[in-house]
């Protein structure tokens, strides 16, 4: 958190090395969020890059409330939401394009099982309502608290918790209790 405050100060003064540090520090988390919301990696990468380009253009105005990671996660979620509204993404991702997480395990059978589970989870996430998916992704991948999500969406914490719970119930039913 202290490092983020220093990075924000440096970014506002135009330090490109600080911008690069923020990118390296948060790009994987932001890509997970964007991929989960859009279900297509190439579009998710574009969203994350757009956020950082925008940040570079408006660096002097940077004044995030709370922590930097949450600020960037909300920016990614807002951009993804706008893309969904404008119809700029396909409804379901192409599984051939879905990047599979490589396991550290040397056991190829375990890696195949994990890859298949990831495909099933991504497909199920794509089938639940976007408002529920966004909250699940921000909470799980973005590590955001419900109160921060509620504040960013200008809604009550009860609504956020309900959407999270309904989204998980829907995922369980789609995955037949495998979650």
N→C terminal distance: 32 Å
Net shape: globular
The major sheet is characterized as: none
Q: What's the β-strand tally?
A: 0
Order of H and E elements: HHHHHHHH
**Helicity level:** over 70%
Strand percent estimate: under 5%
Poorly predicted runs of 5 or more residues: 89-103
Number of helices: 8
Whole-number mean pLDDT: 81
Radius of gyration: 17 Å
**Secondary structural class:** mainly alpha
Please write out the topology.
Layout: H1 2-12, H2 16-38, H3 41-57, H4 68-86, H5 108-127, H6 130-140, H7 146-153, H8 157-174
Helix pairs in contact: 1-2, 2-3, 2-4, 2-6, 3-4, 6-8, 7-8
Summarize the structure.
With 179 residues, this protein is mainly α. It is built from 8 helices and no strands.
Descriptive report:
- The structure is a single chain.
- This protein has eight helices and no strands.
- It has 179 residues and is an all-alpha fold.
- Helix 3 packs across helix 4.
- The longest helix has 23 residues.
What features would you highlight for this structure?
single chain, 179 residues, mainly alpha
